[in-house]
Amino acid sequence: MIVNGVTIEDTFAEAFGMRATRILVTALNLKWAYHAARTMTGLATSVIGCGCEAGIERELAPEDTPDGRPGLSVLLFAVSSKELAKQVERRVGQCVLTSPTSAAYSGIDGEPINLGRNLRFFGDGYQMSKVIGGKRYWRVPVMDGEFLCEETTGMVRAVGGGNFLVLATGQVQALTACEAAIEAMSKVPGAIMPFPGGIVRSGSKVGSKYRTLSASTNDAYCPTLRGAVDSALSSEVGAVLEIVIDGLTGADVRNAMRAGITAVCAVGAAGGIRSVSAGNYGGKLGQFHFPLRDVMA
Amino acid sequence: MSALTFTLRQPPAQTVDLSPLTPDKLAVKSREEIARIELTCGNRKLRVAELFDISGEDRSEGMVFRASSDRLTYVGARMEGGTITVEGDCGSYAGLGLRGGRIVVHGSVGAFAGSGMRAGTIEVRANAGDFAGAALPGDKQGMRGGSIVIGGSAGDRLGDRMRRGIILVRGDAGAFCGSRMLAGTILVSGRVGESPGFALKHGTLLLAHAPAELPATFQDCGEHALLFLTLLEKHFQREGGSFHDFVPLAPRVRRYCGDLATGGKGEILLTRTA
Questions:
Q1: Angle at A161 between CA A160 and CA A165, to 5 degrees
Q2: Which of A28, A31, A71, B57 is the most exposed place for a label (fewest CB within 10 A)?
Q3: What is the ipTM of this complex?
Q4: A106, A130, A151: best mutation site toward chain B, by most B Cβ within 10 Å?
Q5: What is the DSSP string of A61-106?
Q6: Contact call for residues A278 and A290 (beta carbons, < 8 A)
Q7: Which of A68, A128, A133 sits opposite B202 (nearest CB)?
Q8: Tens digits of residue pLDDT in B164-177
């Protein structure tokens, strides 16, 4: 399959089952909602070293938030329900509770996990609960007034690790195409791209020559090793970048991949893009497969 | 087809316990079976047919008590779902221990309306007697969930020992409003009598008018914009109907914490200071 001179390789992305939640963070204005949400989703690029993968899904207008203030929808993904609950509590406690004027609410129905249930104890006995419309909220006194937080958020089964690789003639060309892809993908609901700016340069393979490491650089896609390893890169490829996608459902991942690859193809061969590939483990590890040509069909 | 309707022939000499007549209990009964149900009237038993003319069949529209009287007590008591409409007044214990559904009373209700209720809504278009949403004598907790909306005024001891839920009063409330309250929210748009929040442990009294005298065991915490009031206002908007009469809520309130004699973890919020 060739689109605008870009070869869509006959391969597939391999993704895994995860647990996820959506949290709505509001504040006095969007600036402070971003401060809270960006801090909360910091160091959340990969479950390998961060405990969870997280990102800002979209901006929320005041009429779309529970308290009528501007806000952001944040998605968090982890490998287990226990780890997700731990990460939610730690990140909301350290990053949202601490952020001026902020409040946090559940943004999804599902199996309840703690949101404010334990954070309330920061109130040292002065916290108050309010049950409104069947949901319990905690009012925790803080120095700028009250931190309002819903008691629980919903946890759902989700899909993590959807991906595609952009093979280009050079760094600038690959980055330009990936930036266009991220802009298009960020409009897709239910999906996040957790890496810096949504883009990964350090794609990995399973295992390492060093026994203590479970993953190491994906040498087959490193252009500087083309002559030293069994490279997957042709002579005209000078840089490869990857976009990793976590979605609430397989359809969300698929929609985001399609939007991203379409944007990459729009840059096309004229923009230095040679092909689009995907990362997998031979199909033996992940429950979810996303064949690129099916995604683009 | 019209709703299942019970039209009172004439007010009974003594109070009648109507707790057997709720939509969930009558759901699978024929009109003849309903007519034979025995009701307690004073120290004797009366069959439903002796007291009411029964008409209508449509259970989906709930039940209606027409030409009602304050001798009819325990209306909708322990009901689990459905709707009861009372065209007129009803007596004490309306919605006692309500588990779900909706009771709409076009007139007034007697004492202990919604006492011990856990869910559902009681809407009183006129006035409510004393102890609405309060605990029965000997009970540790009053209302434990749901909503009571009173279009007129409420009597004394509104929400006494209330544990959870929302009580809204469009008019005035009597003395000792929210006394010994354990949690929950009471909103009074009119004025309240003496000693509001007496022995309040937790919970919120949201008052549109400052009481003539605030108990000395409540301390001024200043004026604040509390975010939960926005959530409350949006909840009222979603519920619509008579809840809408309480919108908008004041964006800023003056907070008094108390009752310090019983821990001081509750609050009286004043939307106006005059």
A1: 150
A2: A31
A3: 0.93
A4: A130
A5: -GGGSTTSS-EEEEEEEESSHHHHHHHHHHHIIIIITTSTT-EEEE
A6: yes
A7: A128
A8: 999 999 999 999 99
